[in-house]
Each structure stands twice: as structure tokens, then as C-alpha cells.
Write a structure and sequence with these properties.
Strand order of the largest sheet: 2-1-3-10-4
Number of domains: 2
Shape: globular
Oligomer: single chain
Structural class: alpha/beta
Strand content: 15-25%
Largest sheet: 5 strands, mixed
Helix content: 25-40%
CATH class of the largest domain: Alpha Beta
């Protein structure tokens, strides 16, 4: 896997068209990004956007190690702030949305679960994203701790490398239930599946921030996409996928 990743990053770093833009985006944006990039490219027809998805922490590490990304869209504010502190960004972090956490289950015939239901014998495996590098995983841990469920549920917990993988574990039945991004429940083949929004007072906010990387500092397209992400057009698209406007906006 490391060899494949290195090869991919090397290919991305080779000479590319002047208007090409490479974005590192949190996995929670996977369903929204096609519409966002399409709207951006309609506004800037000369631009060409490539998106690489992953856990925010892992993408931040790649930026820190010189990965050829022009813009980093994180699922939190912490990782962009760390990169800015390391001096590898061309801009300060700017929030563009807030995510929400939901409790979702595999059985399409079942009614929505509540967190206490997770202790039932019929729920054998519960998926969350890895808290060490995925903001949604960290917030899931915080919510379960606030509900005094973290310790009792330890034997049932299974971890996805990112929130996209976590959602896939629930969808496939590898896990009976999971705490995932609301934005990932909008896939067409998941329409009608029941879920429960987690009270956002149970965890730190899922404020999402972006930065232009040092590599993207001279990219006009990176600056244009950054501005686009805080536009009304982008907010409307993000809203259709369960993202909320940042507090104070």
C-alpha cells in the first residue's frame, strides 16, 4: 500500500496543466464533492480539479511530508491549524461547514436506533472511524463517553481507517451499526434507511476548515476554490448533503 501511495503521489507531482488543481478532502465530503467540483468548473471552465479522499489526519500527514496537494479540506479545524503552525500552508485555516454525526444501522427494515440500543445483544459490532486520525471517530468517542457508553461498548467496537470506510462497514453488514457522517447517508442506494442524529452537545463541534498548502500558494485556482467554498452556491450544495453553515456565518 505504501508503494502504491508513493507512486500515486509521484504521478501527481509530475508536470500538469497550468489550471490543474489537486485537493485533499476529508472522506465525509465524498458524496458532495462531485457537485462542488462540477459547479466550480462551470464557474471557471479552464480549471480542472482532482480530488484525493482520506482521513483528515492522514491527509494532513501527507501534506506535512510534501504530498502534492494544493488545497486541504479537513473535517475539523485542528489539523489545518497544526499544518499552519508547522509553516506548510499559504493561508490561515478558514471554516467552510459543520458536520453532523449520526447513528446508522445495517438492517433497512429496522427502525432507527438510539445510543443505548447499542448495548443490546443483537448489536454485535459497532463501527466508528479511528479516533487517532479521523475527526468523526474522535467525536464518536466523545459522544459515547458523554453517554457513559464508551467503556461498556469496547468489546463491540470495530474501526474504519476513515469515515467513508466506516460507513461501508455498516452498509456491507461487516458491522451491525455505526457512528458515521450524516453526509454519507445521502447515497442514492441508501435512501430510506433510518438513522438518528447525535446530539451535537455531546461532543466538540465538527467545524470543518480548509487551507491552501505551501505548494498551492501560487495557484490562482486554489484561491478561487477557497473563495468558492464559502460562497452561497457551495453552501447550498453542502446543505443538500447534511452539512450546516459554520457557527457565526
Amino acid at each position: 500500500m505504501r508503494i502504491v501511495l508513493t507512486a500515486c503521489l509521484l504521478l501527481l507531482s509530475l508536470a500538469s496543466p497550468a489550471h490543474a488543481l489537486t485537493i485533499a478532502a476529508a472522506s465525509s465530503l465524498r458524496l458532495a464533492m462531485p457537485e462542488l467540483t462540477q459547479a466550480f468548473e462551470q464557474q471557471y471552465p479552464d480549471a480542472s480539479v482532482t480530488v484525493v479522499f482520506g482521513a483528515s489526519g492522514k491527509l494532513a500527514s501527507q501534506v506535512l511530508n510534501g504530498a502534492p496537494y494544493d488545497l486541504f479540506l479537513s473535517a475539523d479545524t485542528g489539523y489545518p491549524e497544526r499544518l499552519a503552525g508547522e509553516g506548510v500552508t499559504a493561508t490561515d485555516p478558514e471554516t467552510y461547514a459543520e458536520g453532523r454525526l449520526v447513528l446508522w444501522h445495517h438492517d433497512p427494515q429496522r427502525e432507527a436506533l438510539t445510543p443505548p440500543d447499542l448495548t443490546g445483544d443483537d448489536i454485535r459490532r459497532i463501527a466508528i472511524a479511528q479516533p487517532r486520525h479521523a475527526p468523526y471517530g474522535q467525536r464518536a468517542k466523545e459522544a459515547l463517553q458523554a453517554l457513559a457508553l464508551w467503556e461498556p461498548l469496547q468489546p463491540k467496537l470495530v474501526y474504519g481507517e476513515n469515515i467513508g470506510q466506516t460507513a461501508a462497514m455498516v452498509e456491507s453488514g461487516a458491522a451491525d451499526a455505526g457512528l458515521i457522517a450524516w453526509s454519507l447517508t445521502f447515497a442514492p442506494d441508501l435512501a430510506g434507511r433510518e438513522f438518528t442524529l447525535i446530539d451535537d452537545r455531546l461532543h466538540q463541534p465538527l467545524a470543518m476548515a480548509m487551507v491552501i498548502t505551501g505548494r498551492g500558494g501560487s495557484s490562482e485556482e486554489a484561491r478561487q476554490f477557497r473563495s468558492f467554498m464559502v460562497s452561497e452556491a457551495a453552501a447550498a450544495i453542502l446543505g443538500r448533503f447534511g452539512f450546516e453553515a459554520p457557527k457565526g456565518h
